[in-house]
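LAB NOTEBOOK - FOLDING QUEUE
OPERATOR: T.R.
BATCH SIZE: 2
PURPOSE: Compare the predicted structure-token outputs for two unrelated chains run back to back under identical settings.
PRIORITY: normal
REVIEWER: second-year student, initials M.K.

ITEM 1
FIELD SEQUENCE / FIELD STRUCTURE:
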Amino acid sequence: MKKILTCLLLASTVTVQAQVQRFTGKSALEEITADKFLAAGNMTDYDHLPRTALTPTPKGYEPYYFSHYGRHGARYLLEENDYAMPVKTLRQAKFAGKLTPLGDKVLAKLDSMQKTTKDRLGDLTATGQRQHHGIAKRMIQNFPEIFKSPNLPIHSVSTTSIRAIISMMAECEELQAANPSAKIYNDASKADMIYMNYSAPRGEGGGMFRPDMMKAMQKQQQMSDSLKHPERLMQQLFNDQHWVYLNVTTGQLMSKIADIALNMQSHDGDATLLELFTPEELRDLWRSNNLYWYLLYSNAPQTGGRMQWNQKNLLKNIIETADTVTQVQASLRFGHDTVVLPLVCMLDLDGAAVQVDNLDELENSFRTYYLIPTGSNVQFIFYRPKKGKQGDILLKVLFNEREAHMPLATDNWPYYKWNDFKDYYLKKIEENTPKKNK
């Protein structure tokens, strides 16, 4: 018993340390100062993240099954107003003679960008496709025993979102090119949404309309408003601050321009518009984004630590599917950040399930740009003893292509015993499944 407790304490300590190690050791402000695009949070380009070398396969073992869930790649912004609102506001100011020369240049840049978005809202960009081609190439390089296996069965499922479907196709194109004999099955159906992108009904315990959820969102809105300081930017763009006071929703305008500026990385665009903002302003806008994701999709104590379990069907599907595998094969799933983050928190990868009571300190242990950038993914690689060898089925998990720690005991990190993983997480799923009234 003493040995078991020691192992569990060690696993817990390692997980906490891993969360810190995933960071650079710098503050969020320092990181955003070095790379302003990180302030995009969940819209950060996946290729901005660091990667590390992988641990060799354990002696006497071979990889035989690859399972994963990945977010779609870089995309256009989702709503027409995301592009239209700042253009409309600055046009009104130009007509009234209230723009500075810099304001004129910003209007021209925003107007040009808006014209490229016609009928493209939410669509995957060329950058997004490139991200997924790159991810697939590294999958092949890292696990050739699987992805170059003759006649490899690949079952690939996407949500019904076009950007997720095209992300799936980009990876599958790469896999097929590397292994022409691979048997790839693609699907995208509402029938799979129960585990691919589950949406809790309004009356369900994990839904978005509980009293504690509404209270948390009110707190998030209050903090978001307090983090916006648009005065300096308004002075840069407009020559009449009294006119601004009467005609401009300054906080919203600042946020919309920042969103477009930050999302230029989704188009391999330049950073010209980002020069409008100081690192401190971008950090504060990102803190609002960071808080939103923490409260709605993670293990936040403010929402009872339950939000991530809305996606328990996905974790259950990953476990149950793995238990059916008897030959070399791969299972690929493509969806959204609203599913990747709950999955990462359910697994507590590298301490992602951290609970922070003081939300002013959230950025010290939870950063969206490391967790759910465009293209973010979780990869499960299974290992079995080679022919003639004996041993347990092993598993390691890559979180955004880096070997991750989990709250399980192991004497061979990053490898964990599959039965330990399965027993632990099936129990967690059961504990977080509401009991039906008889």
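ITEM 2
FIELD SEQUENCE / FIELD STRUCTURE:
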Amino acid sequence: MRLPFASAKLSLSALFFVTAPLLLQGCSEAPQQQQGQMHPAAVATMTMTPQDAPFTIELPATLSGSKEVEVRARVAGILESRNFEEGQRVEQGHSLFTIDLEPYQLAVDRAQAALDGANAALVQANRDVKRLAKLRAEKSVSQRDYDNASSAYDIAKTDLEAAKVALKQAQLNLEYAQVKAPVAGVMGREFVSEGTFVSGPDLLLTQMTQFDPIRIRFGLSEREQLQMRQDVQNGSLTLPEQGHWQTKIKLQDGSVYGKTGEVNFSDVRINPNTGTSEFQAIIPNPDFQLRPGQFVRIELNGAVRKNAIIVPQRAVLDNGTGKFVYVVSKNEQGMDVALPAPVTVGEWVKQPNNEQYQNFWLIKSGLKEGDNVIVDGMARIFFPGMPVNVGQSAANSNHAE
């Protein structure tokens, strides 16, 4: 009775060893069959064509008033009134302080009287010269008398001119007693109060800041400047004439300030502590929206990259070791497949597209003219060499094929 049972057990074991290789073979062939049956990924491409592209620099910057003005009196006297509020916006010529005017008004009246007297003396001297000239012709007076009259007339003319200068000086002092704003701007705090004796220009009365236009100061690294000079020499970059970059301001909330300016100064010296040289731009600020001390980001425009290769930023991927794009190529069977192409990127480039701006990467190396780069559908590519179906996509740029 044991023999049949043993035979059945042996038969089952033999059956397992026969069928196991077949099962393993089926499992190994399944992925290959699935890969062979995978449909090509639908993608959209962009053919690389060298073109001129705007070169933009974005940097941090600080704002300062275009003028920081100290307000001082030019004449001495008792300060009678302050004619502004601290923090007030004033126009050029606005009265800020009034020094006791009466002494200076009296000086003007005294100078005016002296001028009137000098004018009367000149008229009298003129009459004497004319009268003595007739008498001298009749030889009724001596030559000496006539010469004395002529000299008196000349002296009277000189006295009249001196009296005019004295009156002008007195009027100027009276005007200086009204301390006025030398520029349009915003007032700081007062340093003296009413009733104080102002000794003259040595005493600081207040300070004011001119906000319109406002000044932007920023630094550009020596390395970036050297790279730009090299690019200019090899013809791949053109810079704004005389370094007058067009300037935009980006505020802390990401919004762009509505007015633009331009760079008007660049320091030839390099700061040894920061490795940068200082630049300055001036931008209109009529509504005083910008304030000194603000930290902003500025965008410098006006330079052009010549014959540049650019791709949409969404087309550039990163595998952890570097950036790459997918390029459409033909395999041995003549099918379109996606192959990764390592690239070296430069700066961001903004290009207009359908009344909006699209972000691109400048490609320094890794692509050439005529390369067909995949710009949409990268998520459908599961492995290098995967078949792709190139078609049009609504999300494409104007250059997509």
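REVIEWER COMMENT (ITEM 2): Residues 1-35, 393-401 have pLDDT under 50 and may be disordered.
FOLLOW-UP: none requested
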